[in-house]
Amino acid sequence: MLIITGIIAGVVALFMFGIHWGFRAPRQIEQVTPQNLGFAFEQIWIPSVANKRLFGWFLPAGNATQTLVILHGWGSNAELMLPIAAPFRQAGLNVLLFDARNHGQSDAHSFSSLPRFAEDLESALAWLHANHPAACEKLVVLGHSVGAGAVLLAASRRTDIATVISVSAFAHPEWVMRRYLQTVHLPNILIRIINRYVQWVIGHRFAAIAPLNSVCQIDCPILLVHGVDDQVVPLTDAHAIVSHCPQARLTLLEIPDAGHASVDKIEEHAPALLAFLREAGFRLS
Fold it and tell me: Boundaries of each Serine aminopeptidase S33 domain copy (predicted)?
């Protein structure tokens, strides 16, 4: 009996380790800075939860009182979001970019999750309010992928965000998990067990953090940007978000020939993103 119990305990432990190992975020360290794009910047360290620090860059635009805060996606970093940041900085907005925990040059932590990305965004906003209060007259947050889900979640519980730009957001975490786990041909019962375990680890029910539900709690204008050719998070997720909450102030911008990580394609459509901000009351050059 003890042998059987030991074997079962070993299998469970291996199963749990496999989940944590399989869903760890790959870390990429920044190789360039905003100076490579011709922008003056301040390198910063943002205090976050659990005494962790977040690496970031603040790109001031003179005495501008409007600021864009950018949050990258899973396994990405602040540098990889610079192409998106550039047109907003050129239009006269301050820009704050930072690395979430376990990403870029930020501190390591036990695991990464959409709620923890949102926590880090709120830490960045707290830093901005404390260190550049004059730059917080009008705030827009932009996130990509998991970062998009995080900015929507944060905006659903804050009143200081004037506009949200979500790039390649999934509609529901359970859908993402199911799509991924089905690619490794796991049976449905095991997929359900894994989903329940992940919810227990992150401390949140998937439904409570799902972007299609977060948008229903946001009062400000939201721009959903999604690549038509996204194979990681299909365009149908964006359609599901829009149809689930018709009362939300949602605008969907579909980008032709763009996949999940096609930041260059998003950059090409910067005029549409800037036009959206102008309609939301931002003063741009």
Answer: 64-183
